Amino acid sequence: MEYIKNNKGIVILVIGLLALIIFNYNDNSTTQETIATEYSEKLVTTINNVVIEEENYIMVDIKGEVNYPGLYQVSDNMRLGDVIGISGGVTEAADLSNINLAIKLVDEMIITIPAKEEIIIVPTDIVKIKVEIKGEVKNPNVYIIYNNSRISDLIKVAGGLTEDADTSNTQLAKILIDGETIIIPKLIIEETVTDIIEEREIYVEINGEVINPGIYLVPENYSIQDLIYKAGGVTVNCDLEMINWDLKICLGASIYIPAYGDEEVEDISQSDKININTANLEELSTLTGIGQILGQRVIDYRAEFGDFLCIEDIMYVSGIKTSIYEEIKESITV
Asked: Which pLDDT does position 252 carry in this prediction?
């Protein structure tokens, strides 16, 4: 105590220094605490802001070919592909060929996932029909094909057309009907018929002033000039001015070629006999036992089968038997 009394000034100085040190320490602690508190508040605010941004949700509506279509609340940073995954993924019928899976979503967005066009579910009892095709196809038959098929489709199923097929009057685009029968006709070549007619030959006789008179088998369209040439031509005594160049050559005709000094005579072919190939109904009716009915049958026979080749062929006509033929054979010719 005596030391303190003797050194009172020094003690007071030491106590003052200690007090100053203690005061500064408390002040610094308070300041550091205040700074830490403010920093913590700022940090929490920043973290809260980040959380708020992560939890910013939007509503989207997804429809169509997904397993669980409906309304979904999703984050606004998601893409279309994410929403499809949330809704259970797409169905087997989904068509994503024109869908941008990376598109960013917006609030209240409506998304529709389309279906593939070729997937059509139709009852099998109305899909197919039964039709028949005949005529000039490679495999004519009855076929079961899809409804709304056309004639051209049926022809393909039947193996295609033959070489003789004629589809000029066939509507290839016509839609087929169940139970229908299609006939593909054969091409008719007119030249074939013409050739048959041109190749027909008839017997004719030529007499008079020709080198080789006689009976010849010639084409039906032969002229007098052709017949004379076939008979070797005319003799030096032939009077060409008296030849009937317009005379029609027909089956059984007899042509006479006159000489100089011959009087104009009627052709041998124009005799009193009735030509059963050219006679009309009135002429045929004059024959014994023929009459109107059998005469008409003769004309009908000629129209269907052509000219008679000989007089005996008249017995091919229905109703003209041997007895009638014997009565008229001396009065007819061909």
From this structure: 63
